[in-house]
Design goal:
Blueprint: H1 2-11, E1 27-31, E2 34-37, E3 42-45, H2 48-51, H3 60-71, H4 84-96, E4 102-107, H5 110-125, E5 129-133, H6 142-146, H7 151-154, E6 162-166, H8 168-176, H9 181-197, E7 204-209, E8 212-213, E9 219-220, H10 225-235, E10 239-243, E11 268-271, E12 282-287, H11 288-291, H12 306-321, H13 324-340, E13 347-353, E14 356-361, H14 371-383, E15 386-387, E16 389-391, E17 397-400, H15 408-426
Parallel strand pairs: 3-15, 5-6, 5-7, 7-10, 10-11
Antiparallel strand pairs: 1-2, 2-3, 4-12, 8-9, 11-12, 13-14, 14-17, 16-17
Helix pairs in contact: 3-12, 4-12, 8-9, 9-10, 13-15, 14-15
The protein binds 4'-deoxy-4'-aminopyridoxal-5'-phosphate.
Residues 50, 109-111, 114, 137-139, 210, 214-215, 243, 245-246, 272, 282 line the site of 4'-deoxy-4'-aminopyridoxal-5'-phosphate.
Length: 427
């Protein structure tokens, strides 16, 4: 795809990242957990388009649902008319949300979902003061960039919101350095109280948090951290927004939503990525009293369109019918156990839950990040026929979020390619 890469570079802005440099990949077809590229090679996909291909490629049930809609001749007219699949998906999501009396609003992306949640919170609390967590990623719209905790991901140092930062993003790293979970939670709560002392706490609209930081390198706080936060937030009426764009739909294996590991019920949950299995679909599900507080009519031309909604209903039904959360727990354990058993000096922490797994690549025998070695492992994986992601705060985390339909045999295949790639770079 050399020629296509040159054309891409000639017409796209320079800040759009493309994996594999001059050897960029054009994926032309997919089947199950495998994709075929224009170079003629087939790859096992452990990244799923950044945790977006949640069910797999070319899934008959999803294809049929979308094709049924296409056969009507209507791709979309307007959400000003009733859309049956929109109501059906909203009913299902309200049911699985864990939020009583939930209302659902659909968007096209995770950024728009978070933008909407921030807007709801700001409206109901009459304030644009938001608490966000360091090293977070919440999107690329103006407000979501403002709560994105790492400058190189936020594209702008200007902010339409008044944001106070919680250092717990850094404290999570303290946890990796061996701090006990209880101490991390206590320190994080102290930090929250300190931040609230610098503002008028009653004026803060909301805290937004990822149950596991995704772009930040699959970093999770101790279970219960958000619960400890919510106790303090509740004293001041501050709302909690859980960004489940990466952690939702059973990916973590142990729970349907990432927030459930924390003993909280968020006021608002945002979702996107996997629920469309590739179709543009995001949204917010939240408490009726918050979701209905927006005084004006708010509308999205494409959010809730029949094609995405048809896909979403089929995805959610497939997910629940096939217990993919259980499968994520089982196949995730194969990967986590296998990776943790590797005795390689360049492997730092192996972390994650279910099928959301990160491998930290470090200078041998230290905890120092080694982004250059990370790229070498990443390239070796591709050479071996495996697609993974990379990222993290220091660019030294290999990220894996395969479709939740991953089989045990595929997990072992991927594990063996990873082991080979890590060993070759370690040598
Ligand atoms: N929140 C989280 C946790 C994400 O990981 C992302 C995307 N990486 C977003 C929000 C933004 O979603 P989108 O790219 O669909 O706008």
């Amino acid at each position: 795809s050399d020629d296509l890469l040159a054309r891409h570079r000639a017409v796209m802005p320079h800040w759009m990242p493309v994996y594999y440099g001059d050897d960029a990949l054009e994926i032309v077809s997919g089947q199950g957990r495998h994709v075929t590229a224009a170079d003629g090679r087939t790859y096992l996909d452990f990244f799923g388009g950044v945790l977006t291909n949640m069910i797999g490629y070319d899934i008959p049930e999803i294809n049929a649902a979308v094709q049924r809609q296409l056969a009507t001749g209507v791709v979309h007219t307007s959400t000003l008319y009733l859309i049956r699949q929109q109501v059906e998906l909203a009913e299902r999501i309200a049911r699985v949300s864990g939020i009583p009396d939930a209302r659902v609003f659909f968007t096209n992306s995770g950024s728009e979902a978070n933008e909407t949640a921030l807007l709801m919170a700001a409206n109901v609390r009459r304030s644009n003061q938001i608490l966000a967590i360091k090293n977070s990623y919440h999107g690329r719209t103006f407000a979501t960039m403002a709560v994105t905790g790492h400058r190189s991901w936020s594209s702008s140092s200007l902010s339409p919101l008044n944001v106070s930062w919680l250092a717990s993003g850094d404290r999570l790293r303290g946890r990796m350095a061996g701090l006990a979970d209880g101490d991390v939670v206590d320190a994080a709560v102290d930090d929250l109280r300190e931040v609230l002392a610098t503002v008028t706490a009653g004026d803060v609209a909301a805290m937004i948090a990822e149950p596991i930081q995704g772009v930040g390198g699959f970093v999770s706080g101790p279970d219960g951290l958000l619960g400890a936060y919510q106790k303090v937030l509740g004293e001041h009426g501050i709302l909690l927004i859980a960004d489940e764009v990466q952690t939702g739909w059973g990916r973590t294996g142990e729970h349907f939503w990432g927030y459930q590991a924390h003993g909280v019920t968020p006021d608002l949950i945002t979702f996107a990525k996997g629920i469309g299995n590739g179709f543009a679909l995001g949204g917010v599900v939240g408490r009726e009293s918050v979701m209905n507080a927006v005084p004006a009519i708010s509308f999205s031309t494409f959010g809730g369109n029949p094609l995405s909604m048809s896909a979403g209903v089929a995805v959610l039904d497939y997910l629940l019918d096939h217990d993919l959360q259980g499968n994520a727990a089982r196949t995730g354990a194969v990967l986590l156990d296998g990776l943790r058993a590797l005795d390689l000096p360049i492997v730092g922490e192996v972390r994650g839950k279910g099928l959301m797994i990160g491998i930290e690549v470090v200078r041998p025998g230290t905890r120092e990040p080694d982004p250059a070695a990370t790229v070498r492992v990443f390239d070796e994986c591709r050479a071996g026929g495996l697609l993974v992601g990379k990222g993290g705060l220091y660019g030294n985390v290999l990220r894996m979020g395969p479709p939740l339909t991953l089989t045990e045999a595929e997990a072992r295949d991927g594990l063996s390619i990873l082991t080979g790639a890590l060993s070759r770079v370690d040598a």
